[in-house]
Design a protein that fits this description.
The protein contains two helices and no strands. By secondary structure, the protein is mainly α. The longest helix is centred in the first third of the chain and has 10 residues.
Length: 90
Amino acid sequence: MDMLGAQLNQSVDRTVVNRAELSGVFDFTIEFAPELGPGSQPGMTASASDPSGPPSLFTALQEQLGLKLESQTGPVDVLVIDHIEQPSEN
């Protein structure tokens, strides 16, 4: 489940934390329509106008795997760069 969360981090614009408390190795296939590019509304997929097309990632996770992504707030690690300079010649 941690690996799935890591993969989902790349697919959604938020940090995904595994709170399913499931352990072990799982082998599954999931079918979903990719979301449209940057600037589109969240959840809008290329097949949104085709009801017979594959569902969005969020719908597919819930319907096909029984997993639900819930939006929550919480602490996250953030890297902050206060200052940067060109290296000096030695």
